[in-house]
Amino acid sequence: xxxxxxxxREPGELDITAFMNLMVVLVPFLLITAVFSxxxxxxxxxPGPSAETTAAEETGLNLEVVVRETALEVGDRRSGLxxxxxxxxxxxxxxxxxxxxxxxxxxxxxxxxxxxxLLEPDIDYQRLVDVMDTLRVARVEHGSAELFPxxxxxxxxxxxxxxx
Length: 164
Known about the structure:
164 residues; alpha/beta; Nucleotidyltransferase, domain 5; two-stranded antiparallel sheet; 8 strands; 29% helix; elongated
């Protein structure tokens, strides 16, 4: 009877040179072709807890844009409604006309930077963003002009009839 001798095998070496070469080429290629997402952040401020007005608010323009389901109402807190923009049959607004009107208001009050957007409940988020974009910047012939970049948001008052 022959005894079998057990051979002691040593583990083989792992050759990862080809894999490393692949990674050296693949990683830069993936980084170059990657699409990096850009997140835009709009800074907003909410109205303070008190309704007291300061001396600056009493003398300057207190621009308010009330976003309703059927209309956009641009007004001054002290003097009342300045302009009303009705929605068309499909519920869309003429943001170009709104921008043109806001540019005229900015010409009369060049130092005013603040505006308040007052929303009715259940207003679509995209509508809020469209109104904010229109309030911030006016599209002019050769670029854009800043209008009212400091925006606050709040709840809209009830319509003149008292019911929603």
